[in-house]
Structures are given as structure tokens and as C-alpha cells.
Amino acid sequence: MTILELDNVTKSFDGVCAVNDVSLGFESGKITCLIGPNGAGKTTLFNLITGFLRPQNGTIRYRGQDITNLSPWRIAAIGIGRLFQDVHIFRRLSAIDNVLTAFKDQAAENALLAVLTPWRTIKAERAVHEQGQALLAAVGLTGMGHTLAEDLSYGQQKLLSLARLLALNADVLLLDEPTAGVSPARVKELLDLIRQLATSGKTIVVIEHNMNVVFELADWVFFLDQGQVALFGNATDVLGDPDVRATYLGKQEW
Amino acid sequence: MNYLFHILIIICIYSILALSLNLLVGYTGLLSLCQAAFYGIGAYASVLLMTAAGLSFPLAVLLAMVTTAIISLAISVPSLRLKGDYFVLASLGFQMISFAVLRNWVTVTNGPYGISGIPRPSLLGFEIDGLGSYFIFSGVIALVCALLIYLLTASPFGRVLKAIREDEIATMALGKSTFRFKITAFAIAAAFAAVAGSLFAGYMRFIDPTSFTLTESTFVLTIIIVGGAGNVAGPLLGTVLLIAFPEALRFLPMPDAVAGNVRQIIYGALIVLMLRYRPRGLWGEYEFE
């Protein structure tokens, strides 16, 4: 089922068209990869979906609802989560606090309740802490909960930002180069985790430059070029296309 | 002894100011230069509520907190959409405007002449009289404020504030309305500054606009920079040091007129030195960048 749709979406910066009349959809339970050369508009597409940029034209729909002009926090709150390419972790918070920030419906995010019912907050915090530790374990950061995020390696920070994203429990996960910087030993586990998430019904969209990863993961592949969808299909078809190989994959990566 | 009590009372008042500003500077990452404006608005509000409306001190303080928090929206709603440096400028502007209003709205504030004859606070029929009892009174209130602010910062609410300080974009992408959180933090900081203002008014029994100037705002900021931001201990240490230290200067053979200027020079030098060599302050958790 198509859960997230873009209709004729256009975004240009100072006359340069970053995303040009793009229409595409993402299915729940599937992993869709976006590939294409630098400047093809992949990250801009993520920025448009998550509300950090507004398109000049076109509509973006999530579960049938027009979300084109919603603010970023609202889009995240209704179920579209995002992993940033440049981790965007909370550097001077501990790893566990990074994750805990993301949980929804924490009563004591209301300042009044935080002051009036501290005992309830303590109880809720205990429960949420356990879930947070479990998520850290799921991405392979067991025992790192109390390390400051800035003291983790880049690869670990990437995993931490994934754990934080999982805490948001969004239905759509937009992952911008999730494996970049992650140690090769961990990549396989990471891919397994992503596949598991898709199996559990999440809609997964991945921007990826590593073609092995695309082959491994993708149910569907969009090849973007100069702000447009140049090709769409399954991984074998798209990656096998001579044009794709020529324009983007000139050098053999696999 | 009286002199010692005086210093302790001032420490109590300024620790509330420093802790409230720390909520913005140390936790939310908002450099605000108008804390003294809320300090002043709170002081005037509670005094007017006591003298003109005849309310008791506790009720007047509560209403002054609410009033100040609401007035804070006038600056926070338009200016918190601005990015970093522009917000600092907007807060500076608000500080200047507030001072001008306190000085020129003569029918309400009595302008530059200030308001005198402010009644001593009384609780349950007992008037808080004498320096010793006023110290205990303000000490208890400062402790309650510190506890409340600690509860706020240690809660999920405080965690989101810190997340905003670290990375506002990422916080938004996690479904938090960062704008709403910032406005709330700002209103809370203003409300606590109003408590400090009420205590100050009740203690001095006279207020005029000169107690609530930009100099005062930067002084509170200096406390945080020296003591350290992002926790409760830093601002408290900073308050004790920066209130006690100038008092020590009194014992140097210096004419009063010179002493005041020397003090300003020392504050300025302290800010520069701390930011250069110890950006997290003496006991802080948050490093200024």
C-alpha cells in the first residue's frame, strides 16, 4: 500500500531546479532506495517530505493527508522520521538521553506536570529508560548509555541517531546514507535491522551510494538525475541499466 | 552581623535570578539580555499589587509571576523565531524598552522617583521584620525556587530544552515543537525573575528603575559565565563569588566612586578571561562556544 506520495513536486533554489516535477510513492513494508549522482535532489526530497523545505509546486500526502505545509515537528509527530546524513546527535547529552528525548507522549514534557508530580515522572522515567537501553542494544551500543554522544566514534554516533529515530516509533523512516561511516563489521547487522523494520510494516526509504547495500536492501529503486526520476524498478533492473551505469556508476563499485 | 545578613539576602535574591537565567542560557542555549527587565517588572507588579490592590505578599508574588510570564510572551513570541544572534539583539531591545517604560510611565511607576514605603512581606499575619528573619525568609524561597528549577531541568521537559540547545533541527525532527518549548522556558525564567524582584522590593522597601538596567542583566549573565551554566551548582557558586567578591573590595583603600568603576572593569575582564580559558565556568556543565 502506498503510504507516502509526492505529486508533481518542484523545488528550485535561485532558479536552479533541485527537484523538478517529481511524482513518486513509497509503499509500507517495503524498502525503497533513492540513488543518483550528487546534486540529483535526493536529500532535497527528504527535506521536502519532512517539512524543512517547502516546494514551490505540488503536494505531498501521507496516509491521504496533505502534509505539504505542515511544520517539521508536526510531520515527525504524525509518523515520518528521519535519519540525517550528518548525524545531528545531541553532542553534550549522554547516549541514553539522546534516545529518551525521542519518545513520544512523555507527560513530564509539560513543565507544570514535571513540577507538580515528580514521583510520577520518576516512575515514567524508569520505564522509558528500559526501552531506551533496549534500543541502544538493538543498534549495538550496549553499555554505552552514559557515554556523552560527542565521545562516541562517528560510526557509533550514526548508530545512536538510528536508535534515537527508532524511539520516535515513526511509520515512515527516511534514512540518509545509514551505513556511511559505520564499520564494515557492523554494516551487516545494521542492514538486518533495517530489513526487520520493513518486515514489521515500516515504510523505509534509503538514500544510498553503496551499490552492494542497494542490492542487499532494495525492494524498489528510484534513480534520480538532475532533480527528476530517471528510472524506477527493482534493484536488478535499475542497477543493470546501461544508462545508470554510465552516468552514475562509471566506476565499478561492486 | 547585619552586614553579613545583608550580603546573604542579596545572595539569595541573585541566586534565583541566576538560576532562572540559566534555564535559558545553560539549558536552552538562548543568550538573553533582558533578565533584569523581568526582575523589574516582577518587582513593580508585586509592589503595586500589595500597595494599590492590597493583596498579601504570597498572593501578590504569585500574580506578579503570572503577569511577568505573560509579558514575556510579548518578546518571546515574535523574537524566538529569530536565529541566535538576532534573538540576543531582540532581548537587548526589550531590556531597553522595559527600562524606558518603568521610568516614563509615571502614573503607574512614579517614574524615576521610584516607589517608597513598600510594606514588609508578612506571612500568616506575621510581619517579616529584622534582617535575620528576612534572610531566613528569602533563603527558604530561594531554596524552593532552586528545587522547582531542578525538578524542571531533571525532567523530560528539561531534556528537550537541552536537546534544543544541542541541535534544534534534530529536536524538531523528533516531533517536538521547539518553538513552544522555548516560549515556555522563557516564561518560566521570567516568572522566577519576578520572585526575585518581589523579594528585592520587600527587602529594600524602595524600588526605582535604576535597579533593573542592562547592567543588571549583564551582571546576572556574568554570574553564569563565571560560575558555570547547564546545572544548578554553577550559577549558585557564581552568585556567591560575584556578590561576596565586590564586598571584599570595600576593605581596600579606594574612594567609592572609583570602586564602582573598578568593579565594572573586573566584571568585564572576568567574562573575557572565563570565555577564553574556561568556557564552562568554574562548575558548569555547558561550554560556551
What's this entry about, in short?
The complex is a heterodimer of chains A (254) and B (289). Chain A has 10 helices and 10 strands.
SSE layout and pairings?
The complex is a heterodimer of chains A (254) and B (289).
Chain A: E1 2-13, E2 16-27, E3 31-35, H1 42-49, E4 57-62, E5 65-66, H2 72-77, E6 80-83, H3 95-102, H4 111-116, H5 118-138, H6 154-168, E7 172-176, H7 184-199, E8 203-207, H8 211-217, E9 220-225, E10 228-233, H9 235-240, H10 242-247
Parallel strand pairs in A: 3-8, 3-9, 6-7, 7-8
Antiparallel strand pairs in A: 1-2, 1-4, 4-5, 9-10
Chain B: H1 2-28, H2 35-51, H3 57-79, H4 84-104, H5 106-109, E1 115-116, E2 122-123, E3 126-127, H6 131-153, H7 156-166, H8 168-173, H9 178-204, E4 206-207, H10 214-227, H11 233-249, H12 256-277
Helix pairs in contact in B: 1-6, 1-9, 1-10, 1-11, 2-3, 2-4, 2-9, 3-9, 6-9, 7-9, 10-11, 10-12
Explain this structure:
The complex is a heterodimer of chains A (254) and B (289). With 254 residues, chain A is α/β, with parallel strands linked by helices. Chain A folds into 2 domains: 1-79 and 170-254, P-loop containing nucleotide triphosphate hydrolases (Rossmann fold, 3-Layer(aba) Sandwich), CATH 3.40.50; 93-169, no CATH class. Chain A is 39% helix and 25% strand. Chain A has helices at residues 42-49, 72-77, 95-102, 111-116, 118-138, 154-168, 184-199, 211-217, 235-240, 242-247; strands spanning 2-13, 16-27, 31-35, 57-62, 65-66, 80-83, 172-176, 203-207, 220-225, 228-233. In chain A, a hairpin with a 2-residue loop joins strand 4 (57-62) and strand 5. Chain B is mainly α and 289 residues long. Chain B has one domain (2-211). Helix content of chain B is 73%, strand content 3%. Chain B has 12 helices and 4 strands, in the order H-H-H-H-H-E-E-E-H-H-H-H-E-H-H-H. Chain B has helices spanning 2-28, 35-51, 57-79, 84-104, 106-109, 131-153, 156-166, 168-173, 178-204, 214-227, 233-249, 256-277; strands at 115-116, 122-123, 126-127, 206-207. In chain B, the strands form 2 sheets. Chain B has a two-stranded antiparallel sheet. Chain B has a two-stranded antiparallel ribbon with strand order 2-3. Chain B starts with a helix and ends in a 12-residue tail after the last helix. At the A-B interface, helix 2, helix 3, helix 4, helix 5 and helix 6 of A face helix 6, helix 7, helix 8 and helix 9 of B.
